[in-house]
Structure formats: structure tokens, C-alpha cells
Write a structure and sequence with these properties.
The protein is mainly beta and 528 residues long. It folds into 2 domains: 258 residues, 5 Propeller (Tachylectin-2, Chain A), CATH 2.115.10; 142 residues, Sandwich (Jelly Rolls). The N and C termini lie far apart (48 Å). About 3% of the residues have low confidence.
């Protein structure tokens, strides 16, 4: 059965109308499970729609790589790991994009002879090759692009060939890559970057040449600043190219370009734009992984599916961070949500009641000690503003500058999330205010009502004042923790009122030289 045949589309329409008409919750900042309660291990992949081999009914197939370290970190996220070991390409299926069933490892270690050649495998996707009636899995394998074929979207995929890209782009490998399937034409493309420096991005249609699956041509669509996590989506007839900064395993801004046709020209020429909404927490502390456009009965919604390489960067919980995009004309807006609901049938979405409205709540988005004079040069913590009322000023070059974040020890990480926390101290007597402004956006409301503000804290003696507080309208709500807390302790303010969709969350500190406080895991959520 062809994935885009008339029979397929009719079956899909009937199935959508009769079986899927409810909002289902997607919760980020945690590890995900299947419908059977088993861990989901899927990184650097993509979602594709194919007919079920048995019933012919369309399903969503989510492919990604399972690394051994993903298991280790999930079981004990107190330690950042250094290496990655390939366990296989996983396949999960769903009919609603929220509830996923594990099918199998569709590409195994044995199929790629991993034990004999334990090299990198990652950044992959699957395309249906009409001419061969085969499914093709394209994945980075060492310094080549490997293509594996199967008769079914469920595999088993067998190695078909390796492509050395040197004659095509000048390097044997692609920098990063994903597979994009145009929902209107059914054609699939490899989206990838130059292997060294990653300052060029290309698109190649996936097809057949001389009886083999191949990349039919090379179209350079971008040449400029280095980018990785290259991926694409289509919305309202426009093509969007997206990518991240070259920050290793860490999160970054989400960048984009837009074009009227698949091969461009993409605008603005060679100048990727930061996606609004991704600035405060580096795209919910993730890299661009892939996108999926839900074309519902009421609305077209693009899902940003970010990879959080937590096991190799220590940046919090969860490997998959999915949020809906909104649009102002052609400009995509990143809605950084902790918890939200999707109706796959209608394409509509809403904010869930247990959403945490704080951006960068566990202080994981920042790559280095802040202020930093290294890439990226940065004085303030992402999403937060530190105002020095007394004490040493913040400086990226002065050694007396206060350090605004703390790299948690392994013991710290037994009690708080992730590698970093807020650090409040100075070498001289100091007074400081650290704040985050919350307000409704055109796409996500901060509803008026009662909320709970909480944080996990640890502090020494030497503070005259040390408060967690919230301000909205004319009201201030606060709790003090000046008494020494040598161990991590939870503090909470209930019944915080939000009026007119605006709120300031803050920590105020007035202390003697050397007094130190640490704050982590800040939450602000609507009360039931």
C-alpha cells in the first residue's frame, strides 16, 4: 500500500473522525513512558506517517536512537556522562501523537556490526521509496551517511549502502541531519550541514539512482554562522529551515529561515533569525530536533520536538521537549511550556493546569558560569535579571565579579534537578534582587487567579534578609529563609494572586561578605 494513496487518505479521514477527538496532555521536564509504562528512548530522530502493515490504517511512527547512557542517566540523573553507546534505532507508534507504543528496535546493533565497529550512529529519519516499494532509514554512521532498507516501516532494516559525501559537499560526513517529508507531495529530503564547521546547510531529495537509494542532488540553502540540529517543517504552504547554535550537547536559541519553495531562496539570505520565545530558556533547554505539522480539522499546528541531551550535558530531566509553535504572519513563535494539551484530530492545543510558568526554572539553560566571557558572552542568567543594589558589579572580565550560578555537586543533584542552580554571594557585604517578569503573551495567557510559588533552597548564616517573593498589582507575597539551611529545603508561598496577567517573581538578599544562598527548581503553577 502506498503511504499517500487515495485509499490511505480516505482511511485516515474516517479514522480521524471516529477515533481521535480529545485533548491529551504532554508534560516536559520529565522522562517519558510508553502506554505500557516502559521508558521511551528516542533521540535525534523524527515522526513520520505510514499505513500500518497489517490494517492499512495510518499511524504515526516515531523513530530515534536508543543510547545506553540514556538508561543510566534516567536511573540516576546526578551524574553527567561522557560517552554514548548505540543500542539501536527504536520505533514507537501512535494514533494521537501523545500515547506511544514501543514496537521494536528496527535497526539493531547486529545489523550495523556495532560490537566490531563501535562508532557514532545518530541523527536519522525514514522515507518511503515509491520506486522500490521500500522504506529507507538514513542515519549518520561514523563519517558517512548510511542507508538501510526494509519492506515495512517496522523493519527490520538492513544496511543498503554508505555514502561518502566528499565529492558532493567536500566532507565525508554531514554535520547534523534529519529527514523531512513534504506533506503535500510525499517527497522526502535529507536536510544536513557541512561536516566541518557546519557553516553551510544543504537539502537533497531522497530517490533512486542506478537501482540504489541515493541523494539526487545538492542544493545549498544557507552559508553563514555555524549551525547544527538542522531540520525543516512546512506551515501554510511555506517551508521553514530551523537549526541551533554549535553548543555541543547543550540547548540554544532556535533559529529559522523561510521560503516559498523547498530549495529556496530562503530569507533572510544567509542570516538565520532567532525564533521569538526561545530566548529566555534556550528553546526550553533543548536543541532543534525535528518538527511535525498537525493538520487538524480546525487548525494547523506545528510541534517543535526538541532534543534534550541531558545525559551528556546534565541539563535537567527528560530527553524530549515538545511545544506548540504559534505564528505572527510568517514569523514562528516558540511557546516554552512545561505542560500543555494537544487535540490531534482538531489540531488545537491549550495550556495544561499544571504548567510551570517560570522560564529556566532550574537554571540549566546557561552553558557556563555566568557572567561568562566565553561563547556565548553573557552577563545575566537566561530568563532572570540580577540587580546589584550593593556589592561588586557584574562583569565578564573583573575577577571580583559575583558568580550568578553554581555547578551542583553530585550530592546536590540527589536533591535538586540538573547541573546548575542560582548562586547568591559576594566577597563584600551585598544587597541583590533577582527577578523574572511573567505576563500573558498573544498566544499563552497568564490567567488571573490563585497560584503556588515554590523553590528548593540552601543557605548559610550571615543574611539580614533573604526572601522569596511575588508581586502582582499592589500586592506582595513573600516568605523568608534567613535561618541557615545546610541541606536543600523546599519553601512555598500559597495563594499568590495574579491580576491583569502580570507578575514579578524574585529573590531578595541582603547579606554579609561570604554569606551564600543557592536556589533551584522554582515553580509557579495555578492552584486547583
Amino acid at each position: 500500500m502506498k503511504p499517500f494513496s487515495l485509499a490511505f487518505l480516505l482511511a485516515f479521514a474516517v479514522f480521524s473522525c471516529t477515533s481521535r477527538a480529545q485533548e491529551l496532555k504532554i508534560t516536559n521536564d520529565r522522562f517519558w513512558n510508553t502506554v505500557d509504562g516502559e521508558p521511551i528512548y528516542s533521540q535525534g530522530g523524527g515522526i513520520f506517517q505510514f499505513p500500518d502493515p497489517q490494517s492499512g490504517i495510518p499511524k504515526y511512527y516515531w523513530y530515534g536512537v536508543h543510547y545506553k547512557e540514556a538508561e543510566t542517566y534516567r536511573n540516576d540523573p546526578s551524574k553527567t556522562l561522557e560517552r554514548n553507546h548505540f543500542e539501536g534505532v527504536t520505533c514507537y507508534t501512535s494514533t494521537d501523537l501523545v500515547n506511544w507504543k514501543f514496537e521494536k528496535h528496527v535497526l539493531t546493533k547486529e545489523a550495523v556490526n556495532y560490537e566490531e565497529r563501535p562508532t557514532w550512529l545518530g541523527r536519522m529519519g525514514v522515507a518511503y521509496i515509491e520506486a522500490l516499494k521500500q522504506y529507507a532509514l538514513l542515519i549518520q554512521h561514523g563519517k558517512n551517511v548510511m542507508i538501510a532498507l526494509a519492506d515495512s516501516p517496522l523493519g527490520d532494516f538492513k544496511v543498503h549502502r554508505h555514502i561518502d559525501m566528499t565529492s558532493r559537499i567536500g566532507t565525508p560526513n554531514t554535520g547534523d541531519q534529519t529527514v523531512f517529508t513534504d506533506p503535500d507531495t510525499g517527497k522526502s529530503y535529507l536536510v544536513y550541514s557541512y561536516g566541518r564547521g557546519r557553516n553551510k546547510i544543504y537539502i537533497s531529495e531522497i530517490g533512486v539512482r542506478d537501482g540504489k537509494v541515493d541523494l539526487l542532488e545538492v542544493h545549498e540553502i544557507f552559508r553563514g554562522a555555524s549551525r547544527e540540529g538542522n531540520c525543516m517543517f512546512k506551515y501554510k504552504g511555506k517551508y521553514y529551515m530551523a537549526a541551533s547554535n554549535i553548543y555541543g550537547w547543550d540547548g540554544s536559541f532556535a533559529y529559522y529561515l523561510v521560503a516559498d519553495t523547498i530549495f529556496g531562496p530562503y530569507k533572510p539570505t544567509n542570516e538565520m533569525q532567532v525564533m521569538p520565545g526561545s530566548e529566555q530558556d534556550y528553546a526550553h533547554i533543548s536543541q532543534t530536533g525535528f518538527f511535525y505539522t498537525v493538520r487538524g480539522s480546525e487548525q494547523e499546528t506545528v510541534l517543535f520536538c526538541g532534543d534534550r541531551w541531558a545525559e551528556f550535558a546534565g541539563n535537567g530531566l527528560g530527553y524530549n521537549q515538545w511545544v506548540p509553535l504559534s505564528f505572527d504572519g510568517e514569523t514562528p513563535y516558540f511557546n516554552s511550556l512545561h505542560s500543555w494539551k494537544l487535540n490531534e484530530a482538531t489540531g488545537t492545543w491549550s495550556v495544561a493546569a499544571d504548567n510551570n510558568y517560570i522560564k529556566n526554572p532550574s537554571f540549566e539553560a546557561d552553558r557556563r558560569h555566568i557572567p561568562s566571557n566565553n561563547k556565548p558572552v553573557q552577563e545575566q542568567l537566561l530568563g532572570w535579571h540580577t540587580e546589584i543594589l550593593q556589592g561588586n558589579p557584574i562583569s565578564t572580565t573583573d575577577p571580583d565579579s559575583p558568580v550568578l550560578n553554581h555547578f551542583n555537586t553530585q550530592n546536590d543533584r540527589q536533591h535538586v534537578i540538573g547541573e546548575k542552580s542560582l548562586h547568591i554571594s559576594d566577597q563584600v557585604p551585598f544587597e541583590r534582587r533577582i527577578t523574572q517578569e511573567l505576563s500573558s503573551t498573544p498566544y499563552v495567557s497568564l490567567p488571573d487567579g490563585k497560584y503556588r510559588l515554590s523553590a528548593t533552597v540552601k543557605n548559610t548564616t550571615g543574611f539580614e534578609e533573604l526572601n522569596l517573593y511575588a508581586q502582582s498589582g499592589t500586592q506582595t507575597f513573600e516568605t523568608s529563609f534567613t535561618t541557615s539551611n545546610p541541606e536543600w529545603t523546599s519553601i512555598t508561598i500559597d495563594e499568590v494572586s495574579v491580576v491583569n496577567g502580570k507578575l514579578t517573581v524574585g529573590i531578595y538578599a541582603k547579606g554579609a561578605a561570604g554569606a551564600t544562598a543557592w536556589v533551584d527548581d522554582v515553580r509557579f503553577e495555578l492552584l486547583d
